[in-house]
Amino acid sequence: MTELSPEWKPCVKLPITVHVREQRPGETHVSTREGVTPLLADDLIMRGVQGEEYPIGRELFEQTYRMLEEEVTEEENEVRFKECLKAISNLKPGDITELMGEAFMEEFRRVSQ
User: How far apart are CA 51 and CA 19, in angstroms?
Assistant: First the structure.
């Protein structure tokens, strides 16, 4: 990973529910906030929290999102987020490797470079 200048501050995306769909037959573009955006063959269509739509490549989607079995309310998201923060704050060095396995850590190191 390229070294960032001090102006870049770390942040974490909140665990919010967004929606995704496959492209419709013959669909070649989607109207985004930035204008009309062409679709690639493997793109999915995301709908964000403000109703905005945008394309996302299937591989990127699969790396960063998980499908939910059912709709999750904002309150449930907040509870889950707080539970995650509590669990993370209790971790000691080496705990993540023990919980997730060495293969996970190797992949994490690879994508973090």
Answer: 9
pTM reported for the whole predicted model = 0.57
Cβ-Cβ contacts under 8 Å for 81 (sequence gap 6 or more): 14, 15
Task: Report the C-alpha gap between 36 and 52 in whole angstroms.
Answer: 12
How far is 77 from 20, CA to CA, in rounded Å? 18
Domain ranges of the chain: 18-67
CA distance 72 to 56: 22
**Main-chain phi, psi angles of 30, to 5 degrees:** -135, 145
Chain centroid to CA 38: 22
Q: How many residues does the chain have?
A: 113
Per-residue pLDDT tens for 36-59? 999 999 999 999 988 999 999 999
Report the alpha-carbon angle 81-83-86, nearest 5.
110
Distance CA 110, CA 104 (A): 10
